[in-house]
């Protein structure tokens, strides 16, 4: 599930559950709504994402790319290290700002993902 909320300068997408191939049918409509809102800052709250594959990453990348073309920015808030790794493998981590200060509400756990090369999680 993806919910969209707005303020005068920001569009926030709150994602819950899987962000993957099974959810791809809703991505074009959501992307069109977000782009149509024309806010300079898009914040993607990923605290409740349970799984993300390359399809979900491609959706986020398309949002960030569209925002960057308008001179805006896309922030990932509460992203799990495994999700950041998927975006990094896609070669697109530099399209995003990562909110390292945000702490998800209690009850939402981060995975114990470790990169295959042993390096620290992308930040």
UniProtKB/TrEMBL annotation:
Domain STAS: 1-84
InterPro entries: STAS_dom, STAS_dom_sf
Transmembrane segments: none
Pfam families: STAS (PF01740)
Source superkingdom: Bacteria
UniProt protein name: STAS domain-containing protein
